[in-house]
Each structure stands twice: as structure tokens, then as C-alpha cells.
């Protein structure tokens, strides 16, 4: 029983990180309908960047701040000049982001090398949770995740900029007429989505093994979470990420991690089949 | 009305979200009649067509061609009951030639489609009907050009040609003269006139000259409902129509003479 | 070093028709006979037939004529080409951007490997078994996947492939996991002849014959009514449905055929490597065909072959200069999207279009 609650708890903690990355994708794919095949690699680049920065002597907390801003900033011209001209074709967008994926993976390979490694935890302490010792850093990471999730939610649903974002996405012509700089808003949304993935990557660097290939798995998971959660629903994305990760964690008490992954993927496939709109999706075509 | 009508639409209602786009519209069209549907923008004309062709679900109402109820069938089956349609923005297969575009419409229902190793182009060239239809819409000179290379007016006419290949009993034309230059409009008129020899034609139009020149009767749709119906001159003289559609005050008009 | 030089098809309309015999056909009265099959024999002497002949000859001869190292590269390229052509059926001909074909590729590998290793089945039968397995799996998955639109289709197929990858990694006793299982190939039995596949040319010829056969098959198929219907579905699916095309059925047919052929490609790969591993179910093997088709040109059967050749050149030669050739490829993709979305074949065709527009007589 203790093992199971520990695993569920661990899963939940992971869930918050997954939620961060999935939220980034929800902005980009769920709302802007950009099929970003490089989203996982942006996460990877955040993690790789964190390791490389640390090997250069830059403290973790600075990486956490700088890398997302850097990557998000670079993502904006990418959206504007590479993706925007292709927006009429979903296929072309997919191809462009696959190209980006290749570029990011190879750059990571060049800068980081092929040897997977992990960052040392920036804060080392243990916490007694549910009868077992739990690495404190993971709680910190989850905590940061929660704060960021709340901040993004507040931004999108409560701030004026967020309103501009939602307006631009739902009715770009009206938003334009109202004087909103829709071009900047769209590039900014893509940048924000990228930054969220990067944050997830930096936070994950002390937890998971970092390699130039780590983006693949997370990409699929993120897409599944966004689709099952429902396109257009940020809350849905969050809930599905947490439930899925916690459930998967719990299931590993009984079967191996790979098998639980298969089971969870299988369940998600069924949900997509039965309810393509997702659990909380709005019928925004 | 009379039982010689081939198309009977009754009580069709379509709504999107909270908006009623087509409100209880009924229409009957005779076998060789050309009925123009006119009305201000947003009056629900294209939605009405979409409801007839099954591209949009109807909330209630019935659509019958020759007595057969269409609403129970999937839209891709409707050609079997004699329905064909051309679109406001020409819906053609850009990468195929004019000949192939026309031929596909024929091939889809023929046994040829199941033969995997027959050369499609050779089959297409054997079809007299393709060449006749191409001729009748005035595209004989471009028959082997890729459809995407045609001018807008030619593409519109190809769209109509494709619909004609289905040998329809009822043809829906959505703004056949839209985007067509004044020199080419006569060409379009000729094609539409030729079409009426084969089928009942329902035509959405904004161009009043076209309406007056071609139609046997006119239905006016405003805000999703039928406001007036009659011959072209009756409808043009109708006060309500003048007020709503043409923005003219009938009293004032008589003053101005 | 002899990369296969394949002259791409001259026609812009996707129909590999010959201009030369058009005159004859036009003076013929359109008779509407159902004997269409007999007329195609006239085309054997036209331009398109020369293209086909060249390609097939190149496939069959390039290997034996090349030094052994290069022969292996050409062999790999042929298999890539098969995989790419199969993928074009999905991407180019029925507009289904799948990212899960790795499932069928891996299935094909094991579909050949397991019968041979565990049950001593002969190679030809194993290939047929793999093809069948691929087709059935594609039917099952396709029944659902084909109904899904763009992004959903991508995710769904990727999801299935990921599940297959994980299962393959887990079922180590059967699949050997990523370490894989080695195959000892029994001699190929064709009627009275027995050919050892360990000879210098045997494997190459086996692969080349299969790939050339599939090429000719697909070439005919896309010029047939089915191919035109697929093209129509790709160009304008709503209009296709409107004129009575049962879009779902045609797409499903493409999906199944593609899965079947992909499995054959996987099977041949296993024969070539004498090896099968769960790694071939991975995402990379689902993305590669996408790249090959895009680089070469969607919706032409020659384009993907070309794309596979270009990629193989990159993989084997550029990689020796710089291991990170994928970076160049990534940049090349972005550039290609900007300037020629139709891939290399697209560039060739627009070049020819410009030439013919400037007065050169060239009936399309």
C-alpha cells in the first residue's frame, strides 16, 4: 500500500512536468492548430541546455530563467518567417517542424554529445512522504510547475494580453480590426509554448537521463494529453496530464513500467476513438 | 403546386448554434425550369443549397427529387437520385486535366473503376460523353490542359460541366457569374441555358442581368425565409423586395420615375 | 560510385501518358468499347515506357555492375525506395500523413524473420507471410485510422507504432528486443532451382526483382481509374465525395496496400541484414519515408524513389564527411518548403513547363 501511494504520488509529480510541456503544446496545437513535431525536441533542448550550461559553470537557477526566454525568443521569428507562410497547409507545417526537429537533435548531438547524462540536483534534500523517502528536488520542480501553470492560466484567462491572445485565435479578423497586433500575438503564443516546453526540459534535467533523443517519447505523450484533454481546453490538458501520470504511476505497482505505458497508451487510443473531441474539448473546428 | 415539379423542398430548417440560417423554406421546381434564388448577403442561400445537397444537416424538412426523399441518404449517394451541384468557388481537381476532371465524374459509377491496370487516360479519351460535355461548356480547346491552369471563368464552367456529367435531374448552381469578367458572362449564360435543356436548374445569383436574362422564376430569400416568389418581373416590381433587397423606397421610386 | 540516375517522368498531369501516340488516339473514333486493356499496348513504345524500362534496368543491373560495397548501398536504397513508394500511396495519393508506418516495417521484418528462424520456412513463403501480416494489420488499424482527419490521423498512427515498439521491446523472447535476432537464410527455392542467398548477387537480385515488380505495378495502378480517383480525393476530397466517390473506401484501400508493401520492404530488409530487431519499430522508421517522399515529390511514384536515392546518398556519402548530415537535411527541408513544396520532381516539372511554354512543342 505504501509503495502504491508512493508511486501514485511520484506519478503526480511527474504529471505536473508533463502538464507544463503539454500546456505548451496545447497553446501551439490545441489553439493555433500548428502541428509542432519539434515540441518534444524543444523540451530536449531545454534539458540539454541546462546540462551544457551547468558544465560551463552557470548555476541551475539561471539556466531555468535564461533558457526558456532564449528558446522562446528564438521561436518567435521561426513562427513568423518559417511557419506563418505555410499556415494554410497542415502538412507543410508538419514537414517544417520535422525539419526543425532534425536540426535541434543534431545540434544537441554536436553541443552535448551522444553520452546520456543527468544533472546533479540543484537542491539536495529528502522528504518523508507517505512512509518513504522522496527526493525533495522533485517536489520543488513540481512546485515550480504548479506556479507556472497557475501563472499561464492567469495570463491567458485573466489578463488583457491573454484576452488579446484568445481573441486573435478565435476571430483574427475582428482582433485585427480592434487594433490588436495579431502577428505579434501569434508569434508570441508560439514563443510561449516553446518556453514552457523548455522549462519542462530544464526542470527535468536533474530527474531524467538527458540525451538528444529524449524528445520523441514526450512528444507523443504531450500530443495524446492535448487531444484526450480536448483541443482548445487548457484545463482539460492539465487534468488529463495529472490523471494519466498518476494512474500510470499507480499501475507500475503491479506491472512493469513499459507495460503500464502500453496500457495507458492503449486507453488513450480508445478515448480518441470514442470521443475524438477529447474529454473537455470545445467544438472549435 | 403542380405535380410536374421534379424538385420538392418543404419546410427545411437549418440552424448553427443559436442562429437559424434557413427558416422553414419550401420550394418546388419543374423539370425544365430555371429558378433563380436571390437575396441579400447572409440570407441563407448557400446554406439552403448545402442542406439540399446533404453537406449540412437539416433540423427538419424534406427534399425530394422525383418523389424520392433525399434526406435519408449520405451526400455522396445523392448523385444517384439526380442531384448535381456547382459551387461558388469552383470545386475542381486542379492537378488533373479538364478531360480527366469530367471523366472522373462518369467513371465513378462505371465498372471501369475496378480495373486496376487499365490506363485511365485511354479510357477517358474513349468517352464521347466527356467530349460532348466539354464542347457544350465551351472548353473543347482546353480539354487536355491541367484544370489549375484555366482562367476563373473557365474553371466555373468546368465545375458546371462536372455536374452535368452526372446527368442530373436537378442542378444547383451557386453564383455562376461570380468573379467572371463582363466579356465572359455571355459564355456563362450560354452554358446555363444549355443546362436547362437537360435538367431543372436552381441558381443562386446576385447579378440581376443574369437573373432577368435566364430565369423562368425567382424566389427571394431574406433572413433565411422566403419573402417573395414569382416571375422575374413580378419579383422586381414587388415593393417589399425593392425595399429590403435593393434598398429602394418604392414610393420614392415612382417619384423619381 | 554509381548512384542510380533516374530520369523523372515528363508528364505534369501525373498520368504517365505518351504524347507520341496521342495523335493516333485522337483520330480514332471514341468508341466507348470496354476493351480498354488492349489499347494500352500502344503505349509500350512511348516515352513513358522508356522511363519504366530505364528504371527497371537500372534497378536490376546497377547492383551486379557495381563494386560490392556500393552494391550494398544500392541494395539498401532499393528497399528504401520500396518503402517510400508504399508511403506515397498514403501521403501522395490519399492524403493521409501517417507517422506509424514503422509498425508495418517492423512487422514485415519479423514476419520474415520469425517463420524462417523458428519454423524453417523458406524465404519466398516468409515474404508472402509478411506481406499478408502487413495487409491484415493495416486493415485492422486502417478501419479506424482512415476515418481520422489530418492531425488525429498522425497522432493515432504514431500512437499505434509507439505501442508496437514498446511491445516489441517487451516481448524479448520472441523479438530479441533491440539486440534482435539473427537469421540464417535457407537457400531460395524457385521451382527446381535452389539459390543460396549468401552468394554475391543473390540477395541483390531478389530485392531488385521484387522492387522493380512493385514499381511497375504501382506505376500502372496510379495511371488506372483507381489512381485517378485517389488523385481526385487528394486534390479535393469534398468534391470527390460530392460526385459520388466513396472516399473512405478508397483511402482504406490505399492504407492497406501501403501497409502490405511496407511489410514487404521490412521483410526484404530483414533478408538483407540477416537480422531483425525491435528498433525498426521506432519512430525514426516512421518519419524516414515521410522525408523521402517529400524530398522526391509527393504523388508521383518516381519521386519517392528519387527521394530515397537522395537520402541514401546523404546517409552514406555525406555522412562520411560530417556525421551530422541530418542537420543539413533538416535545413534542406525548410528550404525546400519555401521554394518548391512539390519536391525534386516538382522542380523538374516546373522547369520543363517553363521550357515548353517558351515554344517547344510538348503535349501534356
Structure, explained:
The complex is a heterotrimer of chains A (285), B (257) and C (364). With 285 residues, chain A is an all-alpha fold. Chain A has helices at residues 2-31, 39-55, 60-83, 90-112, 136-158, 160-170, 172-177, 182-204, 215-229, 234-251, 257-274, and strands at residues 126-129, 132-135. Chain A has one domain. In chain A, a hairpin with a 2-residue loop joins strand 1 (126-129) and strand 2 (132-135). Chain B has 257 residues and is an alpha/beta fold. Chain B has ten helices and ten strands. In chain B, the strands form two sheets. Chain B has a six-stranded mixed sheet with strand order 6-7-8-3-9-10, sandwiched between helices. A four-stranded antiparallel sheet of chain B has the order 2-1-4-5, covered by helices on one side. Chain C is mostly helical. Chain C is 68% helix and 3% strand. In chain C, helix 3 packs antiparallel against helix 9, helix 6 packs antiparallel against helix 12 (247-273) and helix 10 crosses helix 12 (247-273). The chains are: A mainly alpha (285), B alpha/beta (257), C mainly alpha (364). Chains in contact: A-C, B-C. Chains B and C meet through helix 2 and helix 3 of B and helix 2, helix 9, helix 10 and helix 11 of C.
Task: Count helical runs of chain C.
Answer: 16
DSSP strand content of chain A: under 5%
Any low-confidence stretches of chain A, pLDDT <50, length ≥5? none
Count the helices of chain A. How many? Answer: 11
How big is the Rg of chain A?
19 Å
Amino-to-carboxy terminus distance of chain C: 35 Å
Shape of chain A: globular
Count of discrete domains of chain A: 1
**Mean pLDDT across all amino acids of chain A:** 85
Give the CA-based shape of chain C: globular
Largest interface: B-C, 47 and 44 residues
Main structural class of chain A: mainly alpha
Assembly category: heterotrimer
- Report the β-strand fraction of chain C as a percent range: under 5%
**Average pLDDT of chain C, to the nearest integer?**
78
C-alpha-based Rg of chain C, rounded: 21 Å
* Helix-strand pattern of chain C: HHHHHHHHEEEHHHHEHHHH
Read across the widest sheet of chain C, the strand sequence of neighbours is: 1-4
Amino acid at each position: 500500500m505504501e509503495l502504491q501511494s508512493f508511486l501514485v504520488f511520484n506519478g503526480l509529480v511527474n504529471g505536473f512536468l508533463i502538464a507544463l510541456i503539454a500546456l505548451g503544446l496545447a497553446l501551439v496545437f490545441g489553439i493555433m492548430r500548428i502541428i509542432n513535431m519539434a515540441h518534444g525536441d524543444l523540451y530536449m533542448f531545454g534539458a540539454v541546455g541546462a546540462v551544457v550550461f551547468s558544465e560551463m559553470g552557470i548555476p541551475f537557477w539561471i539556466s531555468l530563467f535564461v533558457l526558456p526566454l532564449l528558446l522562446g525568443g528564438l521561436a518567435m521569428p521561426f513562427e513568423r518567417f518559417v511557419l506563418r507562410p505555410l499556415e494554410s497547409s497542415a502538412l507543410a507545417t508538419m514537414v517544417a517542424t520535422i525539419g526543425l526537429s532534425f536540426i535541434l537533435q543534431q545540434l544537441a548531438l554536436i553541443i552535448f554529445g551522444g553520452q546520456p547524462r543527468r544533472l546533479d540536483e540543484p537542491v539536495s534534500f529528502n522528504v518523508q512522504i507517505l512512509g518513504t523517502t522522496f527526493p525533495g528536488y522533485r517536489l520543488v520542480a513540481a512546485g515550480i510547475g504548479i506556479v507556472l501553470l497557475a501563472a499561464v492560466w492567469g495570463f491567458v484567462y485573466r489578463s488583457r494580453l491573454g484576452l488579446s491572445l484568445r481573441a486573435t485565435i478565435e476571430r483574427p479578423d475582428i482582433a485585427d480590426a480592434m487594433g490588436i497586433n495579431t502577428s505579434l500575438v501569434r508569434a508570441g503564443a508560439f514563443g510561449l509554448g516553446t518556453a514552457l516546453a523548455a522549462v519542462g526540459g530544464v526542470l527535468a534535467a536533474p530527474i531524467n537521463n538527458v540525451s538528444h533523443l529524449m524528445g520523441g517519447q514526450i512528444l507523443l505523450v504531450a500530443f495524446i494529453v492535448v487531444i484526450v484533454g480536448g483541443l482548445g481546453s487548457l484545463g482539460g490538458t492539465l487534468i488529463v496530464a495529472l490523471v494519466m501520470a498518476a494512474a500510470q504511476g499507480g499501475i507500475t505497482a503491479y506491472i512493469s513500467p513499459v507495460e503500464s505505458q502500453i496500457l495507458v497508451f492503449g486507453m488513450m487510443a480508445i478515448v480518441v476513438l470514442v470521443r475524438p473531441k477529447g474529454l473537455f474539448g470545445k467544438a472549435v473546428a | 403546386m403542380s405535380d410536374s415539379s421534379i424538385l420538392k423542398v418543404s419546410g427545411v430548417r437549418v440552424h448553427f448554434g443559436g442562429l437559424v440560417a434557413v427558416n422553414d423554406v419550401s420550394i418546388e421546381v419543374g423539370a425544365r425550369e430555371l429558378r433563380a434564388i436571390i437575396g441579400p448577403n447572409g440570407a441563407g442561400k448557400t446554406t439552403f443549397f448545402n442542406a439540399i445537397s446533404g453537406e449540412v444537416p437539416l433540423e427538419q424538412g424534406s427534399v425530394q427529387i422525383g418523389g424520392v426523399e433525399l434526406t435519408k441518404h449520405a451526400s455522396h449517394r445523392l448523385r444517384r437520385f439526380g442531384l448535381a451541384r456547382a459551387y461558388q468557388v469552383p470545386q475542381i481537381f486542379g492537378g488533373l486535366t479538364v478531360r480527366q476532371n469530367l471523366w472522373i465524374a462518369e467513371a465513378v459509377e462505371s465498372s471501369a473503376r475496378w480495373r486496376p491496370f487499365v490506363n485511365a487516360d485511354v479510357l477517358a479519351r474513349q468517352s464521347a460523353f466527356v467530349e460532348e460535355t466539354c464542347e457544350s461548356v465551351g472548353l473543347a480547346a482546353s480539354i487536355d490542359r491541367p484544370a489549375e491552369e484555366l482562367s476563373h471563368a473557365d474553371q466555373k464552367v468546368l465545375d458546371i460541366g462536372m455536374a452535368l456529367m452526372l446527368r442530373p435531374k436537378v442542378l444547383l448552381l451557386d453564383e455562376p457569374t461570380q468573379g467572371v469578367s463582363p466579356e465572359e458572362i455571355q459564355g456563362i449564360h450560354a452554358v446555363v441555358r444549355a443546362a436547362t435543356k437537360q435538367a431543372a436548374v436552381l441558381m443562386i445569383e446576385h447579378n440581376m442581368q443574369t437573373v432577368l436574362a435566364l430565369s423562368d422564376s425567382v424566389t427571394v430569400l431574406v433572413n433565411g425565409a422566403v419573402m417573395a416568389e414569382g416571375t422575374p418581373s413580378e419579383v422586381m416590381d414587388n415593393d417589399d423586395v425593392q425595399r429590403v433587397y435593393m434598398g429602394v423606397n418604392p414610393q420614392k421610386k415612382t417619384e423619381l420615375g | 560510385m554509381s548512384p542510380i540516375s533516374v530520369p523523372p517522368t515528363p508528364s505534369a498531369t501525373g498520368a504517365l501518358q505518351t504524347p507520341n501516340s496521342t495523335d493516333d488516339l485522337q483520330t480514332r473514333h471514341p468508341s466507348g468499347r470496354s476493351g480498354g486493356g488492349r489499347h494500352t499496348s500502344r503505349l509500350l513504345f512511348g516515352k513513358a515506357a522508356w522511363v519504366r524500362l530505364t528504371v527497371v534496368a537500372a534497378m536490376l543491373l546497377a547492383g551486379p555492375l557495381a563494386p560490392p560495397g556500393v552494391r550494398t548501398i544500392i541494395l539498401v536504397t532499393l528497399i528504401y525506395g520500396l518503402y517510400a513508394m508504399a508511403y506515397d500511396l498514403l501521403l501522395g495519393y490519399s492524403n493521409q500523413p501517417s507517422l506509424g508506418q514503422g509498425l508495418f516495417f517492423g512487422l514485415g521484418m519479423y514476419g520474415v524473420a520469425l517463420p524462417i528462424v523458428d519454423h524453417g520456412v523458406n524465404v519466398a513463403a516468409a515474404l508472402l507471410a509478411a506481406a499478408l501480416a502487413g495487409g491484415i494489420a493495416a486493415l485492422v488499424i486502417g478501419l479506424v485510422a482512415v476515418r481520422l482527419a489530418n492531425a488525429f490521423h498522425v497522432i493515432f498512427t504514431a500512437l499505434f507504432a509507439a505501442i508496437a515498439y514498446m511491445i516489441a521491446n517487451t516481448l524479448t523472447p520472441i523479438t530479441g528486443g533491440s539486440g534482435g535476432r539473427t537469421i540464417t537464410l535457407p537457400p531460395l527455392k524457385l521451382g527446381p532451382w535452389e539459390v543460396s542467398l549468401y552468394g554475391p548477387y543473390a540477395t541483390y537480385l531478389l530485392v531488385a526483382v521484387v522492387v522493380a515488380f512493385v514499381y511497375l505495378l504501382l506505376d500502372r495502378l496510379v495511371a488506372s481509374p483507381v489512381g485517378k480517383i485517389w488523385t481526385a480525393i487528394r486534390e479535393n476530397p469534398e468534391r470527390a465525395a460530392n460526385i459520388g466517390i466513396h472516399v473512405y473506401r478508397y483511402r482504406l484501400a490505399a492504407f492497406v496496400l501501403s501497409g502490405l508493401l511496407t511489410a514487404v520492404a521490412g521483410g526484404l530488409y530483414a533478408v538483407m541484414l540477416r537480422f531483425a530487431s525491435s528498433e525498426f519499430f521506432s519512430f525514426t522508421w516512421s518519419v524516414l519515408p515521410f522525408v523521402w517522399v517529400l524530398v522526391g515529390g509527393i504523388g508521383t511514384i518516381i519521386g519517392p524513389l528519387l527521394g530515397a536515392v537522395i537520402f541514401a546518398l546523404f546517409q552514406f556519402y555525406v555522412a562520411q564527411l560530417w556525421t551530422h548530415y541530418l542537420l543539413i537535411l533538416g535545413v534542406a527541408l525548410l528550404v525546400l518548403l519555401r521554394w518548391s513544396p512539390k519536391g525534386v520532381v516538382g522542380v523538374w516539372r516546373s522547369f520543363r513547363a517553363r521550357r515548353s511554354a517558351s515554344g517547344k512543342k510538348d503535349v501534356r
